[in-house]
Amino acid sequence: MHHFHYVGKELYCEEVPLKRIAAEVGTPCYVYSYATLTRHFEVFDGAFSSVPHLTCFAVKANSNIGVLNLLGRLGAGMDIVSGGELFRVRRAGIPAKRVVYSGVGKTVEEIDYALREGILMFNIESAEELELINSRAGALGLKAPVAIRVNPDVDPQTHPYISTGLKKNKFGIDVDLALKEYERASKLENVEIVGVDCHIGSQLTELAPFVDALRRLKVLISRLEERNIHIKYLDLGGGLGIPYQSETPPHPREYAEALINELRNTPYTLILEPGRVIVGNAGVLLTRVLYTKQTPSKKFLIVDAAMNDLIRPSLYGSYHAIRPVIKNDEAGEEVVDVVGPICESGDFLARERAIQKSTSGDLLAVMSAGAYGFTMASNYNSRPRPAEIMVKGSSFEVIRERESWEDLVRLERIPSF
Ligand SMILES: Cc1ncc(COP(=O)(O)O)c(C=O)c1O
Ligand SMILES: N[C@@H](CCCC[NH3+])C(=O)O
């Protein structure tokens, strides 16, 4: 996080004062640090350097093609969940051979696109999907490289909305039923079994669930081997958490060590699908205070960013630190709700938060907003989505323009009747 730092009283991203970005680009906007993105990727990927592996960035966390292009140049593969994400990945210049494709609802159109592009592996999430991929590959005269996404039924001990590897979740195929599906797949003409996959949840702060899941996968893999089904790729998904407030997630090195320890003397190429840990703390949402409002019960800071720009606080009750862009030691702190202009009581970025006393016009940085920030943004209340900026050293560039009002209606038509 040290690429977002105070120089004197001013908050900078690398060598650029956030105030300058706000003045030139306006607010709200997302600001990403090139140096942090690079460091996070290199630390994570480097932690696995002792084993054959491919780090496939989870595109859903931040899908700006500028970000994808940077990670791709650092050697990243990509974990996608839609045709749209594949399109972005290809537009960012990343070879399809570095792409793994997860998701419970792949359509024919998406499957065909991924087959034609020649992705590395489909992570299959149901028996029907396996059938469909086999028949589409046959129709196109291709062979589909597949893994089955196994649901290992481990509790990731994270927010219930973002746990994915429990029996009750919609994801993957039950670990006990997976064997049968692999046997079925092994008899299909147009698929080639290349891997085993799982992903158990997001923002995990303990290693134990990862290790438990891996152990269950190992049992499955040895049963497969008994049946003469051999895999090349072992995809362990993403999910490593980051510090937003006081969390103490394992360091990527500890995470890698725990996994590699379990895999001693195995021949598999490890695939990892980290999202948040690469981009989360590489970005902030820059916003300006529009009004302050004292009510009989509390004080509100009404800012120009809202739940449509960053939905995590509203959706999960997530904590994002909020820092003043200009520190004022004399101002003191006060407890406020930081809210946006949207017509929902659930539209808040922070509640009952002690922050530096602010007045209208002040700039605030909502920290740790690089993951699941812009990608989950919407146009609710007909708010144009914010700009995205990448900073490198003393320069910065807009990597996504702010939407205009014209953009809001571009695809709409008034019907002839
Ligand atoms: C299949 C899959 N892979 C990878 C990820 C990335 O997760 P995270 O951002 O927590 O690393 C997700 C989202 O949780 C996912 O659903
Ligand atoms: N969007 C969620 C994480 C879900 C991950 C999707 N696989 C978040 O902001 O924390």
Give the tags:
single chain; 417 residues; alpha/beta; Lyase, Ornithine Decarboxylase, Chain A, domain 1; TIM Barrel; 2 domains; nine-stranded mixed sheet; eight-stranded parallel β-barrel; 12 helices; 29% helix; binds pyridoxal-5'-phosphate; binds lysine; diaminopimelate decarboxylase activity
Question: Explain this structure to me?
Answer:
The chain is α/β, with parallel strands linked by helices and 417 residues long. It folds into two domains: 159 residues, Lyase, Ornithine Decarboxylase, Chain A, domain 1, CATH 2.40.37.10; 170 residues, TIM Barrel (Alpha-Beta Barrel), CATH 3.20.20. It is built from twelve helices and 21 strands. Strands 4, 14, 15, 16, 17, 18, 19, 20 and 21 form a nine-stranded mixed beta sheet that branches. An eight-stranded parallel barrel has the order 5-6-7-8-9-11-12-13, surrounded by four helices. A hairpin with a 2-residue loop joins strand 2 and strand 3. Helix 2 runs parallel beside helix 9. It is globular. The termini are far apart. The relative contact order is 0.16. The model has no long low-confidence stretch (mean pLDDT 96). The structure holds pyridoxal-5'-phosphate and lysine (LYS). Pyridoxal-5'-phosphate binds next to helix 10. It holds the Pfam family Orn_DAP_Arg_deC. Keywords: Amino-acid biosynthesis, Decarboxylase, Lyase, Lysine biosynthesis, Pyridoxal phosphate. Specifically catalyzes the decarboxylation of meso-diaminopimelate (meso-DAP) to L-lysine.
